[in-house]
């Protein structure tokens, strides 16, 4: 993966976000404070699953409690 993979909507991801994205766990729970990049991390994880892991989109469930995401 090139470094541009970890730029989401023009924002570079930090090390913790990158680790959350490439984590091989079957399930992910992202909990962090306001403005910390949770939505970008979720978008990055979905991008990773689709483009790198070739996951069927029907196998992805993403739940968020914000209007933005």
Description:
By secondary structure, the chain is mainly alpha-helical. 32% of the residues lie in helices and 6% in strands. The chain has 2 helices and 2 strands, in the order ββαα. A two-stranded antiparallel sheet has the order 1-2. Helix 1 packs across helix 2. It is globular, with a radius of gyration of 12 Å. The chain starts with 6 loop residues before the first strand and ends in an 18-residue tail after the last helix. The mean pLDDT is 89.
Helix/strand layout:
Elements: E1 7-8, E2 11-12, H1 15-22, H2 38-51
Antiparallel strand pairs: 1-2
Task: Provide a brief overview of the structure.
With 69 residues, this protein is mostly helical. It is 32% helix and 6% strand. It has two helices and two strands; from the N terminus they run ββαα.
